Queue: 2 jobs
Job 1
Amino acid sequence: MMDKTLPQFGPRESMEYDAVIVGGGPAGLSAAIRLKQRAASEGTEVSVCVLEKGSEIGAHILSGAVMDPIAMTELFPDWKSRGAPLDVEVTEDRFLFLTEKKAYKAPNRLLPECFQNHGNYVVSLGNVVRWLGAQAEELGVEIFAGFAAAEVLYNDDGSVKGVATGNMGINKLGEASANFQPGMELHAKYTLFAEGARGHLGKQVIQRFDLLKDRDAPTYAIGIKELWEIDPKMHQPGLVIHTAGWPLDSDTYGGSFLYHLDNNQVAVGYVVGLAYQNPYLSPFEEFQRYKTHPEIRKFFEGGRRLSYGARAIAAGGLQSLPKLVFPGGALIGCDAGFLNASRIKGSHAAIKSGMLAADATFDALRAARQSDELAAYPAAFKESWLHEELYRARNFKPWMAKGLGIGTLMVGIDQLVLRGKAPWTLRHRHADHECLKPAKESTPIVYPKPDGKLTFDRLSSVFISNTNHEEDQPAHLTLKSRTVPVDINLEKYAGPEQRYCPAGVYEFVRAENGRDLLQINAQNCLHCKTCDIKDPTQNIVWVTPEGSGGPCYPGM
Amino acid sequence: MKVLVSVKRVVDHNVTVRVKADGSGVETANVKMSINPFDEIAVEAAVRLKEAGIATEVIAVSCGSSQSQETLRTALAIGADRGILVECEGELQPLAVAKLLKAIVEKEQPQLIIAGKQAIDDDCSQTGQMLAALCDLPQATFASKIEYQNNLLTVTREVDGGSETLELVPPAIVTTDLRLNEPRYVTLPSIVKAKKKPIDVIPANSLDVDIATNLEVLKVSEPPARKPGVKVGDVNALIQKLKSEVNVI
Ligand SMILES: Cc1cc2nc3c(=O)[nH]c(=O)nc-3n(C[C@H](O)[C@H](O)[C@H](O)COP(=O)(O)OP(=O)(O)OC[C@H]3O[C@@H](n4cnc5c(N)ncnc54)[C@H](O)[C@@H]3O)c2cc1C
Ligand code: SF4
């Protein structure tokens, strides 16, 4: 598409920066902030810009979230007086094992450390990120929201030169329309990729520089979340509930979170490991069904749902962490995969890794270096509390992949008895897309119909994610082969994309000639990246749509 | 010719608005706000006049809280030359906005004032018209085309079932309709440039204008939920349902 339109418009314009940061989430903004803080305290200047594909900072951020303030305190020791929206301290932790009708509460003293949240805050990460964005702008960071980085640019020596934003105003046929605007090139001495889980450009950089060599395959989960306003009588600010068990079978890794914020709001969500095997499984419907459990339903009766969304979670941990640096840049936050899967906490890790990479970048810039490897960043990571934390947590996900029973037992031993210092490290053997079993070896799952009060269908859900894409543009869910969706996905796996996509983007329809056809409703996409991860033959490739397309989450 | 464009900060048109639990209004906390789409069209129209050598200066003005500066920055990125924020907290009703704009019009003496035909939040479609009355200026509302020649504005308006063409002697007021133009995509360099353009902040209370609200909002409620549809198997089933359940045939 690029090649077809560009020549007639001549070369793209470019802008130069010391550091270009791709992605305005906690990782990217913290890196930008840290760069500016260092420059200010050392009396120099650095030019920093942040590209964010969402229409504003925070629009695409979706998280739980219970936040460990450790990294925030390092970034802004005075975050409280600056008004950071960390307002609700965790007051109570509950861990429930669900069966279809019953809930068993694990005694708190038996909970591994990773499920204890004393001193943490229940937040809307979207709001925290909006706040970080305002801090960054105040420090002079140039934030460009509504612009997706669509392409990595390379210098002649192979180092990363920067990124280019996508073209705007390309129609469905890939032609320039009347208000076409070519993309811009952003050149940088160092480019930091902070796109979150399964970054579109991060994936390309990882491949190009073979950053996963000798590491395990990255593994992911999908997290689906709703924000509710509930009956004040049921609301208990700071209450944090996690569940395992029903409705998932014991072979599938997953569980729920239910966090009480302030203003009678409750964040509720469901996480399903994408290494699941049954192609009939639908994370969306599992989530809807979960809410009907008596112990969960009670919170939502008489309440109303305010928002909905979904996002992939990078859950590979230390074993799957790629090499973090390459000539001209680095991966930070969940684009690399710094998430503690045992706590599903990644926001503190994102902030910390952003700060560490920023320190290395700043020191390199001061030494008049550019476009080389920021070796100081992985070195500093190794020495940090973050490494220690991820090391302790490294066996959680692989144990859980062995099923809930043995998983919980071994996690217990691992975390409680050995405090995460067990002498073993488990491996992730398979990438998530390799895990599906053929449909004929799997049992179809029948899910209950939504009632429109507590449980919903996909379309009414997508509606309140406020997602939107300019209609007249090529679909950003691209297929390597047009025939694979029907010939393999539908034939062999019963079309799993219809079920794992939380937005109903993929629909198999019967064409007039009686043939099956995959219809892609790209406009509904929530940018969760699940299809890019789980598609069994990796035929679906998620690329950036026109900037500012995608969800517009109100404080998720 | 100096052109003044009014721009309002409203809930983004992609956001599903949500009524506050107590029915007192619409939830705007943590909601994405943007420039009113009709005002974006107004700015685009003004900037095109400038690019055509007709307008000499394009001034964007917004009335509201300091956050409306973001909205002014959007106008500046599209190509307006400078911004004016008439700053005040609290609710502003169309009459108050029109009075504030009148004060700015008197100060700046523009030859053309372009406003949106309505703001998509309260859908009043009043401000432009009231401003015309207060300033005693000719107006052309719901414009789908603006031309200027020999000191005369020719404006085509959208009216029921067709269009109407008016001639106005500036200074005049035009409000924009959807078909007037399709606003450009702002570019990164224009955003960078917009950050350096000046915005004057004028406290509303320095303008000697009565902006008290004279309408009281009693209640805001959501539209009734749409009943779910049904799929019918064939034409016969449809006719059957129209007869027996809907009673329309
Ligand atoms: C359901 C769920 C629950 C979670 N619960 C918790 C929790 O309780 N506690 C906790 O600490 N963590 C939690 N996490 C994890 C946490 O949200 C992430 O670790 C964190 O958001 C990672 O930050 P990041 O900056 O790396 O990426 P993200 O937050 O994903 O931000 C990336 C940003 O980059 C933008 N972007 C991506 N690609 C491009 C591009 N090419 N061009 C321009 N912009 C781009 C995106 O739009 C986004 O704004 C949860 C995650 C999920 C999904
Ligand atoms: S199309 Fe892919 S990225 Fe978009 S919502 Fe569906 S699964 Fe997620």
Note: The mean pLDDT of chain A is 91.
Job 2
Amino acid sequence: MQIRSPEFKQNARIALTDVGLQKALGNVKTGFPDKRAKAVARMPEFDALRDQARDLKNHILQHLDLYLEIFEANVIKQGGQVHWCRTAEDARQTILRLCQEAGAKTVTKGKSMVSEEINLNAHLEAHGIQPVETDLGEYILQLRGDHPSHIIAPAIHLNLEDVSETFHQHHHKPKSMDAAVLMQEARETLREKFVVADVGITGANFLVAETGSTLIVTNEGNGDLTQTLPKTHIVVSSIEKVVPTLEDMSLFLRLLARSATGQEFTVYNTLSSGTKRLGDQDGPEAFHVVLVDNGRSDMLGGELQEMLRCIRCAACMNHCPVYGAIGGHAYGWVYPGPMGSVLTPQMIGIEQAALLPNASTFCGKCEEVCPVRIPLPKLMRHWRKNEFERHLTPQAARWGLGIWAFFAKRPSLYRLLSRISNLSLRSLAGKKQRIEKLPFGQAWTQMRDMPAPSGKTFMQQWQARNKTGHNS
Amino acid sequence: MSRADIFASIQRGLGRRQASAAERAAVEQRLNAKAPNLIPARGQLSGEALQQLFISMAQEASAEIIELTRIQEVPQAAALWLQEKGIEELVLASDPELQALDWSSTQGVLRREGVAQAGDLASLTLAFAGIAETGTLMLYSHPDSPTSLNFLPDNHLLILRRVDLVGVYEEAWNKLRTQVGENWPRTVNMITGPSRSADIEQKLQMGAHGPRRLVIFLID
Ligand code: SF4
């Protein structure tokens, strides 16, 4: 995926006036936070589970080499192999080689953000192997030559009209505006792909040291078909995902679905351990776990270590006013929202991603909802300090003013944020005095020039959100 | 090379070379103890209350529950359910308990045994456990229980014994450890309701890639 993070300001400006995007983003703001709040309310122990999850992740990180060694030994014991990849390039090459060794022409894929991170699809295609995304959202994006804008709801930036048009073009069927019909089309088309694929590639939400297993979490069942039917199953995942035991995995699972979609439990939680056993009638004959580092081990022992606790639930972006206003693509790389603003500079370099840690109102909502209690605002401040030290500040400060202007144009959002914290608003521009000197009146008049539909939708949604906006 | 680099980098970050004896002991202790973490009160039930929790959570996840007494009643109940849906064929797991079922009093259900094929309309399998806290079923792969039966057919019918109901995930893991011993299975499925997706405008649609319907025959 092409890096567009340096153009963050411009991306954000375009996103704010993109009528279709603003309409689609309404689905984030009205859906996820309420669902999470309801699920959390049904689990009185939720905060205690979060404390345990934070502590357990810290324990794991302190013993990461040991747990990874045990995980590897147990994968081998179950008939699988582990491939260690220090960089994204190593991982691309390794997976390509494994696919070539399996004689693969088509590869089905379950949803995997690590595979986006290493830009796997383009690499396979360049070498004559056709990757087929099977998660409905990812499938839609692949047909459109597009990329995920959200880590669990990849096509959240699209509307029904977009999907309808795309499927009409690719499926050669009458155009439908019924989401159920569209999903049915995808189901039928992909069924054929599942059956003929030579290799299935999935990600993993957790790696269990005790049993040498990988776990995927899906609602669709696509990951399961991906990893059950082909002869070879390749898991691509990252080193911080290891957990000691099944009990420990269960702790995280109780937090993951509730934080992510507000479900009590995701439909399919599937544990894979090695190859098919003697006498098994189906299942893969080869099992490979490709473990990607790509900058993660360098975060250990430093100020960013806490970011390695992330379980990729997306709660931080679902509750982020900046993400809600501009969507995921504006961030310009794979991981958007608050977690992305911390991770992206680590993975693509702070020079390229310098603007992202400023894409925050420092309202603190992300930290408030994070199931593993990652202090995201603090980690973003770490990058800002780092920028300052590297003399990247002037640009960043200019952005600070820019983002203030954008919030000033939205009085209801402004009011919401004021209520949350006056202090965090001040930090928008870095210095208190500057905010007070900003031309409020002018910003207000500029709003009249904004396209009405986008402004209206945005306002309506925030107003609706204000009524129910208490969800932790 | 990469492996050594990664481990060196991790150890550099942790500010040590090889882990100390104490660190190794802590890890071994955790792996051996397999101690539960905090277990929510919700699932700590027994008897009727446990069963009711399982049923209500499974139904909330859009699973259908059909309560029966004996496994011998399954063919009738399954045939009736299939008939209502206009389905005439059923793929069964090659489990001796399923093979022993008597279908002679049912009509019009074409049965086959083995793995699922694309286009299969319905499967019948045995669940290993039911987990009340979220209405979740646990199944694991073995020669009599191919995983494809749980995902390819349009409708998944399962038999679950009331005695196999447990409160929480941790109990199910222990039950599985006891059952399989050293022979850990390739796949363990935890299934909570039928397949779904909200990828189009965040509006939930049932039946994405896996079964559109999940039917649980609860027996004694
Ligand atoms: S940072 Fe926290 S809230 Fe955000 S995705 Fe990671 S675990 Fe979830």
Note: Residues A 310-316, 339, 370-372, 374, 376 surround iron/sulfur cluster (CB under 6 Å).
